[in-house]
Amino acid sequence: MADDVAAPAPDAEMTDAPAPDGAGGEISTGGDHALNSAPNVGTGDGAATLARAQPAASDATPPKPRVFKIGDKVSALASFDGVHHEATVVDLRRAKGAEGKDEDAIGPADVSYYVRYAGMDKRLDAWVAGVNVDVLDPGMTRNLSDPLLGPGSLASPRKDSVNLGDGAPAEGRKVTRNLKRRYNEINNVAGSIEDLAPIDQKLEKEHDEKTKVKNIGCVEFGRFEVDAWYFSPYPAEYADCAKLYVCEHCLKYMKHEVTLLKHKARCRMTHPPGRMIYRHPRHDEGKPGLAFWEIDGNTHKVYCQNLCLLAKLFLDHKTLYFDVDPFLFYVMTEFDERTNKHAVVGYFSKEKWSNEDYNLACILT
């Protein structure tokens, strides 16, 4: 009795030629029996599998984890342009109502991520809802932190690449540390930590670790609402505040709008403390008048401390917050004729006695 499936004859040659019409998809083996090319086809009870299904290679993106970890590379939706960008998870927090959930039960809607976008200034760091954070597509990964390595950069072969200001073509240049420094100076780009001296690298890393997460989302100051850029050491009870309310006259800060409204009803300050040293009426121009006020940090300590805390939200490397005694502050205001009050629009400070004869310590407008 013949086997259910006959083995090919030793001298038989397999052919890749298409089967003739009516052959039913069979491949000739040169023997008395035919092998059917369809899988799981046989004769009788001893049917054999003649073709085994091979696992298909998949280029699909790996499944999205329930929770990313600090340090993970992700694709995060940016609020400033509505586009996903490569980012690094700096911190994470659970949403309200998800604090007691088990790790296995946590989903994208239960967590938010504080991310730092690759190649972008630290001021753009932000909290992003978990539903807007995805697994990083390998095609998105690129060296965005180095502006010298993209189209139109110093290393680009295009003739219209970045001009260094010395008339020399950038085409074909080797990207050196000096070239990167010159590019950063011309284009007002903050240099990388690796470009600093070792001692400065250590200090910068320590500073970044302490201030890596913004504690204030935005500030309501008078009729303006401004997104905060950096961390500021406000008291702990004001940490993780989505919006901080600041009185535009006395600079006191509050967590709730209703508190600000009650404060304004009883705030009697119409201008900064100290003495007016300059005034510029602008009635003819149809603009509010300007004035400068000199304030001694030793005499008006609380006001100057509040000014420094507010300024730190927009200055990354400001280190003076509370020790304001050795400084003079010069605050510029706009005069509102409707309310007969002065509103702060900028300031600068300087040391009373500087060993290096510096005449400027900090400036913000």
TrEMBL record:
Residues 211-365 form the MYST-type HAT domain. Residues 1-66, 146-171 are annotated as: Disordered. Belongs to the MYST (SAS/MOZ) family. GO terms for cellular component: nucleus. Pfam families: MOZ_SAS (PF01853), Tudor-knot (PF11717), zf-MYST (PF17772). Gene3D superfamilies: 2.30.30.140, 3.40.630.30, N-acetyl transferase-like. It is found in: Nucleus. Keywords: Acetylation, Acyltransferase, Metal-binding, Nucleus, Transcription, Transcription regulation, Transferase, Zinc, Zinc-finger. The keyword Transcription applies. This is histone acetyltransferase. PANTHER family: HISTONE ACETYLTRANSFERASE (PTHR10615), HISTONE ACETYLTRANSFERASE KAT5 (PTHR10615:SF219). SUPFAM superfamilies: Acyl-CoA N-acyltransferases (Nat), Chromo domain-like. One of its GO terms (biological process) is regulation of DNA-templated transcription. Its EC number is 2.3.1.48. It comes from the Eukaryota. InterPro entries: Acyl_CoA_acyltransferase, Chromo-like_dom_sf, HAT_MYST-type, MYST_HAT, Tudor-knot, Zf-MYST. The keyword Nuclease does not apply. Residues 1-12 have a biased composition (Low complexity).
